[in-house]
Amino acid sequence: MQKNPIFSAWLIPLYLLIWGTSCDFAFAHPFHLCVGQMVWNQKAGAWEVSLRLHPQDLEAAMTADLFPDDPSKKVSAEDRNFPELVQTYLSQCFFIRRTPFAMSLEETMAVLTAERSSDSTTNQAREMTADRSILKWVGAEQEKGWLWIHLEMKPPETKKGEHKLWLVHRVLLEHVVRQENTLSINPAVSPKFALQFKKGEDVREMTAPK
């Protein structure tokens, strides 16, 4: 598979920073990092997303989340239905959430916690679709022991002054010790910025820091 065109020069310094911590980082796997980027595609009205993860970490997290009551199940990146399973897993832990503009971070986290613990009915699920982004699988590729996953993320509609957008990125955070996630965001119409996530800090407002 050819490399996704959204890979750009900004990744080079990031690679050097990560690889500089260990000359054999990709193979020794001493750190647990998910590095990625989101680029706004104005024509498509969607974010082009690429995430780089360690495949074994992802497989273990997906197995635990998708098949918690079936120890015989084990997810593998080689499975034919892996794209479908990845999309299901990421839809639960990597998404944009719309809230009323006045809602604070603490209130948003409380709402997200309640949503996770409740059994959604069909009507509730339909309402959630309007408030959450929708993921679409694009492709994947292997690179020196890492797995790149490419997605399209359609954000929920918003009205200026009425809604606020939050990015939830808890990928691997609940299953991998000392996992940290870093995401570079390119809105196209404003300067790029980066967000960092770790356990207990997995929700960030989707605006550039002032």
Q: Which blocks of ≥5 consecutive residues have pLDDT under 50?
A: 5-29
Strand order of the largest sheet: 4-5-2-1-7-8
Percent of sequence in beta strands = 25-35%
Using the CA coordinates, give the radius of gyration: 17 Å
Average pLDDT, all residues: 82
**Envelope shape:** globular
**Helix amount:** 25-40%
> How many separate domains?
1
Order of helices and strands: HHEEHHEHHEEEEEE
Number of helices: 6
Structural class: alpha+beta
**Tally of DSSP β-strands:** 9
Let me know the largest β-sheet: 6 strands, mixed
Distance between the ends: 39 Å
Report on this model:
- It is a single chain.
- By secondary structure, this protein is an alpha+beta fold.
- It has one domain.
- The chain has 6 helices and 9 strands, in the order H-H-E-E-H-H-E-H-H-E-E-E-E-E-E.
- A hairpin with a 4-residue loop joins strand 1 (33-41) and strand 2.
- The model is unreliable at 5-29 (pLDDT under 50).
